[in-house]
Write a structure and sequence with these properties.
single chain; 928 residues; alpha/beta; Rossmann fold; 4 domains; seven-stranded mixed β-sheet; elongated
Amino acid sequence: MSQLRLLPFRLRAQATGLLATRAVPERNWRSRSSGPPAAFPSGLGGGSSSYMEAMYSAWLENPQSVHKSWDSFFQKTSEEASHAAPEGRPVPSQRTTTSKLVEDHLAVQSLIRAYQSTYCQHIGLEFMFINDVEQCQWIRQKFETPGVMQFSSEEKRTLLARLVRSMRFEDFLARKWSSEKRFGLEGCEVMIPALKTIIDKSSEMGIENVILGMPHRGRLNVLANVIRKDLEQIFCQFDPKLEAADEGSGDVKYHLGMYHERINRVTNRNITLSLVANPSHLEAVDPVVQGKTKAEQFYRGDTQGRKVMSILVHGDAAFAGQGVVYETFHLSDLPSYTTNGTVHVVVNNQIGFTTDPRMARSSPYPTDVARVVNAPIFHVNADDPEAVIYVCSVAAEWRNTFNKDVVVDLVCYRRRGHNEMDEPMFTQPLMYKQIHRQVPVLKKYADKLIAEGTVTLQEFEEEIAKYDRICEEAYGRSKDKKILHIKHWLDSPWPGFFNMDGEPKSMTCPTTGIPEDMLTHIGTVASSVPLEDFKIHTGLSRILRSRADMTRKRLVDWALAEYMAFGSLLKEGIHVRLSGQDVERGTFSHRHHVLHDQEVDRRTCVPMNHLWPDQAPYTVCNSSLSEYGVLGFELGYAMASPNALVLWEAQFGDFHNTAQCIIDQFISTGQAKWVRHNGIVLLLPHGMEGMGPEHSSARPERFLQMSNDDSDAYPVFTEDFEVSQLYDCNWIVVNCSTPASYFHVLRRQILLPFRKPLIIFTPKSLLRHPEAKSSFDQMVSGTSFQRVIPEDGKAAQAPGQVRRLIFCTGKVYYDLVKERSSQGLDGQVALTRLEQISPFPFDLIRQEAERFPGAELVWCQEEHKNMGYYDYISPRFMTILGRTRPIWYVGREPAAAPATGNRNTHLVSLRKFLDTAFDLRAFEGKTF
């Protein structure tokens, strides 16, 4: 206790196991003289009895010498003693009676303490909120049984060796690169043996694959001593001459991930360890790890999580402050998202960057968020390695016994500032004076083992010298430039998908159409109920009849096109997973992939899983009301295998803004930073239809602004231009105007020889628009996705007479077609649709512009001018046209909000830009 005496009282209480008592807010725990908690904290200041007696003696001499709460307590006790005297007898002295009551209180406390000496040392537990008697009793047995925390000499020696590696690794980096940021683990070196214990115990219980996520603090140490990344690969990242890999920008060394298969030396079993790469955005990796874990379990058929598990490491301030932690916890027990328990390890530095806990959270403890899912919380003093190891072993056993989350709170400190260049004395002077006097855990534990005869001083020094020698030899090898390659840092390799050098096996993409009999078969199943005696809603019966009618007529609408894309991929062995809020039915009641029996509760049918005898499985699952957490989960799911189509659909495209962190940090930049290909698909309903500013725009301008194709570079049109352009981009952005386009782009996503994120702005009103239907002829074998759909009507028959060529994308095309017809301008105005916006189809745009040489060029969009696509397409048009012809803008004026909330205003602005689009004199006399 004396080693942490100057730290805030509540934090000292955590470090000494006082958490077994009821949580008391920090503001009520200011000093040793503060009021008594609900249950007196035994173990404080040399024992509760001596402390309380001293307090009482001081009060008798001077009531003002103690805290007012103790004054009130002793006064009340004295009054009770006076009233308790028998009638007619003299009242004993106040001191004698009160002392007797105090002694009785102390006797009860001593009895409790004798029974639970466990909680008066370096471990504190929170589990009484768990509403399961079996689970509570299991925890009690693990901690309250006398003598359970015993270690053999060999186990102690292993623990010491792991501590040596943890601490000497940090010391080596500090010696070699004293001026480099490395976000070291000093102050919580015990985390390395803690993680290794969790992995050892889990391996013993049958786990074969462990997926880890963690922040930057301690990552290099984990890579070196847990994942067992080659040290020379780590050290070479400190080379000042290190250049970014050819594939992209790379990332700082403490953000990188790793994948490693090896033998666990404790269990002698194979173990695969994967540390997921992630950015500085705190806790953003949590749902990504869970999604990757779920996918690995799915592909192994590990429905109970007996083979694959996840470990998440957190910082105390981030664990309490970041909302994605809460979102991730709430996925933990949902059927389509559970990973059957995660071990959470909180590195509790008792400080954020420079912020004290009292300023950083309102909850008593940083781990309180875990209580929402009834996860037991084990607090342990990180300066007691044996206590830490025991707690971690129990945590791993809990996870593999009950398949539920568990939290290990390592109450420690941060020896240096936020990074090695930071000065913590600016803001926490008293805390860091005490920390600077703190004896490192390695020395304390080594002294203990030497004193008890488990190891000798010579053996300890030899262990240090041995690891120092390993580091020095690796340092010498790190000078070899051959090892400087980012591909060594993959956290999700896809064996067999790429060539040995990591490049695609080809730069071609087969046609995406399928045989007509397959289209007919899928359409038939999509319009039927495969199960017998299954009663569906009468309204749904009409929808199924409509699908059957379309199939007979060789037509598809949006929902049926999606059905056919998914179904055809399932036949080819591609797992399809669609996730999001209300995706089973569809926000706009168009999908209905899960049928519900109207008379039997919870009886459902997924016809998509009844298409073919040996098809891949189809997973469609409504998510929790979360965007950040669920999108991160699906991103992680898509990381596990290239042979799956993983889609996340926003309820409205606008709502992706609460998942912007995943989009910015993982999806748009993942390949550039971590050479991580990912084929996740985002379905974002988009369209200006008078539904207000929060239900209209999926913010296409944001995605386009983050696209990496160069607006000023005139491309070289090679034979494989379409595919190579896709390979060079960071993601693909499309806005399909026909069901056939949607069908083809989904299939192309899998048939490409590489994986890129796909952003699709999906429609709302077009789901039922009578003109938004496609013929089987546009989807059969030999057909493909059209990046640009050219004018093919009356204007195309006499291109020399066309006065205006309007380019557009998405739903607005149907407004333009209708207006052109009503004004009788079919032969004078041509309409060309961009189905793929990014990467920009330079080659096809040039062809269209050259086809109508006398036409003025117009870009028409329904979005406001400062939004949508105009700022993206305009400079690219100028590049491909050599700045010889202008591209005029037609659309809504700039605005702050993406759409109006007034229906009439919406219609007025629509009328205005349609009039401009077909006013053939609108741009006369204007220059560009």
